[in-house]
Amino acid sequence: MGEAKRRKQTGAPAPRNQGNKKPALIAIAVVVVAVIAAVYFMTAPPAPTSDNLPVAAANADEFPAIFDQYGTSVGSEDAPVVVREFADYQCPACARFSEASQRLKKEYVESGKVRFVYFDLPLRQHPNAMPAAQAARCAGDQGEYWAMHDKLYGSQSSWSGSNDPVATFTRYANDLGLEERRFRRCMTTELHKEAVEQSLQVAMQLRVASTPTVLVDNIQLTRPGWGQLSAVVERELNKAED
């Protein structure tokens, strides 16, 4: 029985002409590879030897290390490189950079290569930035400054517009296992408000007005993020070894 007659009797549809799909598939694959390559080259960290990395301004003074006492630091005092960040807990860009600072602490601070200093710079347009900065310092009284620091940035959208941020921060303190009464008393009495304001004064004295402002020694990053941060840190570490 012929194929056409069989289809007529059984009602089976005629087979579709599949054609040669190979050229189309190859073209799609080439486009996908090109897109992946473009994304990689756009997002890959620059090499520490790149000429596009920021450098210290001509005749720039060293960062006045005496100001570090007004920030919160972690890492060896003898670390060859110091990274300093001026930031606002309610600033979205600062929340994005917090991922880079966490990675910095894990990959460089813990090994003694870098010391990290965080300065509070609560901006006027962010009403909850000041109590957030105090919450981190109140948690620090119980040994959990960096845990609260990371929690505040990681949950920024949950408290940024809150009318009662202290209640939210107290809940975070409970999550971290802190003594609630002590934490709440620290917040309601604004125990660390003066310390936060002193950090703010340091920023003003240094004419730091935007957040996040990140410096590797006395070199200000132009694109705060892990790519540029890690590249500049590596470059300065290599210089310190020479």
Overview features:
about 240 residues, alpha+beta, five-stranded mixed beta sheet, 10 helices, globular
Low-confidence stretches: 37-43
Distance between the termini: 87 Å
Q: Which range does the strand content fall in? A: 5-15%
Helix content: 40-55%
Q: Based on CA inertia axes, which overall geometry fits? A: globular
Order of helices and strands: HHEEHEHHHHHHEEH
Structural class: alpha+beta
C-alpha Rg, in Å? 27 Å
Largest sheet, in brief, is: 5 strands, mixed
For the biggest β-sheet, the strand order reads 1-3-2-4-5
How confident overall, as mean pLDDT? Answer: 88
Tally the helices: 10
Q: Care to count the β-strands?
A: 5
Structure, explained:
The structure is a single chain. Helix content is 51%, strand content 10%. It is an alpha+beta fold and 242 residues long. The chain has a five-stranded mixed β-sheet with strand order 1-3-2-4-5. The chain is globular, with a radius of gyration of 27 Å. The N and C termini lie far apart (87 Å). The relative contact order is 0.16.
